[in-house]
Amino acid sequence: MNILRSLIIVSILTLLVVLPAYAEDDPLVRLTVKAKIKSNVHIEWEKLPDTDPRYIAFAKNRTTQSVKKNEKIILLPFALLVKLRTNDPTKIVKIHVENLKSEGGKRIIPVEKLSVSINGGSDQFFIEDIALLQQQEGSELKELALLFCLHTTMHDKSGKYSANFSFITSDIP
Amino acid sequence: MKRKIFISILIIIGLFLLEPLAVAEDYSEWKEGARLSVTAVVAPYTSVKLSVNEITFDVKGEPGDYDANQSVSITVGSNQSKWSVHAKANELIPESDKASSLPSSRLAFSINDENDFKDLGQNRLLIEGDAAKLPTAFTLNFRLTTEWEDLPGTYRGDIIFSFLSSP
Q1: How many domains is chain B built from?
Q2: A38 vs B57: CB contact, 8 Å cut-off?
Q3: Structure pTM?
Q4: ipTM of the complex
Q5: Which end of chain B is more exposed for a tag (fewer CB within 10 A), N or C?
Q6: Residue B2 lies inside a defined structural domain of this protein
Q7: What percent of chain B is modeled with pLDDT above 70?
């Protein structure tokens, strides 16, 4: 008798369990998704002539440097407005400048005599490439105003000089 | 003599017995002898097929909207009176523990090359139909939106397609 009662209870429970599954057949299908995100650096720059109001404002805000004896500081007549961003915290962005060459390339002013003021800060000399974006600074958009100064002496001949500027990126090992 | 009479009686009785069989050959007068009960159980049948098992997003440039490397064909067939297919994505988990997951809401889909992408952060209705509808293939296009905060690397997740029906 007890067995029969148990069987009836099990049958009722089975019905209760099975009926909803039947009413709402719910198979699942799975689609695997893979996303491969590569390292990316955004470098955007604009050259501002000395007539640009932004250049004038940057020049006013620039920290004035003490001038050495027999040295003359020439503020270059342009500024660079640089926007940097990366999704890779291991990336560093630097600015690299080559030696300044006169027209015809006969005379050279070493790049070590060139300095840059970033966002009005104190001058940094191009003894080595100068970092504009450090590691871990990445995802926020970083805007920098670069003003360049040439520190000349009597030994540097007058003339028109030019140099190539380039932005370089590197990984931190 | 008695024997002949006995045989004659037997023949007459035999003729009476054969008569009902002859009458029974008229089908209109057949009576039900036994009943065999037949039950056919048509089980609910559902088929949801995808043309591929995996899609890949190759994010090589700056953050933005990226389409999957291929579209996915989905074919649904069912004998249920009304049915619908829904989809929802799970977040994409990075292989590197330094990176954060990509939220499922960054995955989106469109049907049959329409440009109206809907995010898969919530359960979305893809297709609905009924038993009379023949299995038809639909094309699904998937899109991933990335941001500058997403670190380089490989992320994995999935999109779950669920089938709901009423018998």
Answers
A1: 1
A2: no
A3: 0.74
A4: 0.76
A5: N
A6: no
A7: 90
